[in-house]
Amino acid sequence: xxxxxxxxxxxxxxxxxxxxxxxxxxxxxxxxxxxxxxxxxxxxxxxxxxxxxxxxxxxxxxxxxxxxxxxxxxxxxxxxxxxxxxxxx
Length: 89
Known about the structure:
Radius of gyration: 18 Å
Low-confidence stretches: none
Number of domains: 1
Strand content: 5-15%
């Protein structure tokens, strides 16, 4: 979706990050090659897959929902501008 947003903004003459910052989610390889390269949140996909399988294979009768948290990492690239003291760019 963020890739599409970059394209739509460019089509409308809106500069990224000059006029607006854009960030995505799920650090797929292509986002590094975009112009501007896309700031994104990287997730430990292999570990998430392992945890999903563990949850699916290990029963938990009568104990309610099981919640596991995964930490993502923000990967700063050139599609976002720094925040100024006043909270704007």
